[in-house]
Amino acid sequence: MATVTALMTTYNASRWVGASIASVLSQTYKDFELLIIDDGSSDNTTDVINSFDDARIKLVANSQNKGVGYCLNQALSLVNTPYIAKVDADDISSSTRFQEQLNYLEEGGFDLVKCFLSYFPDNEKVRDSARFKQFKAKKEGLLNSVSEPSVIQKTLSDWPCFPHTTYFAKTTSLQNVGYPCLRMFEDYVLFLRLLNAKAKFGCVEKVLVNMRVSDSSTTASLSARDLEHGLSLVVEEKWVRLSHCISGKSLFVFGTGQMAKAFARIMMHRGITVKAFVETSPTQDIVTDNGTKTPVISLANYMAVSQAALVVAAQPVREELTEFLESENLHNGQDFLILA
User: Which CATH architecture has domain 4-220?
Assistant: First the structure.
């Protein structure tokens, strides 16, 4: 039996999966198997995988598209090695990644460890895009800055500071909580489950994964139902903190995007009404599914409300907004809460 399972799920990844597999097969640490679950690809992804002549590769090809969470949970049931290294089909692992993460995990007694990452563009068009420039200028440094175990524990309860594609973990720790069968937020819910189970997180402070930024997005193609389903499990895992924060207060939500609207629907199902959405520059009122209107107010007007709790459901501004709220003597987990 091998010591490590490199775990990959694929879906229409024929353009990139070959390079990702090659980076796994070139690891200096050789005692691994590569388990690939294909989620019903309609392109030639499985042909690319089968073109590799290496007995360590084990492919399970599902006939139907079940979603990434389903496939990851399926994979966990098939793993019989002590450790798992997550590998995404479009990312590149450093040749020393498995060895360095294994050594760090065992020496520190961690349940799972991440590493630093570096974003790279899929093509010249992506390289010149504002999205890629923002990832390199801000997101990369922000993710890599969360590296001390105590900081990871604290930050992970607010937002997914633990990139899924970078983890190396004890198999039993993952199997004890399992992945949710979601198409969105399956990674963050897994980490919240581990956090609530008192798992110990760590980080190898070295770039061991190069993460591809492409001009296509799986998340963008998901439905509002997928978003709401995933977010409802995030809310469930955060419910103790969330209910403490909003107890006895009027609930406001910062943001007017799809995440904010989905959160409002989730809370309505729980019998809790969002009093208003909040934006720096307010827009028109939001009409909900049942035809009622929820007002959109300015952040300045929100700050004048007493006995109010703010849930932040706008990812691009969460750091700046957190800094502002804390500068106003408001406390994370007591006066406001980061959703994801």
Answer: Alpha-Beta Complex (3.90)
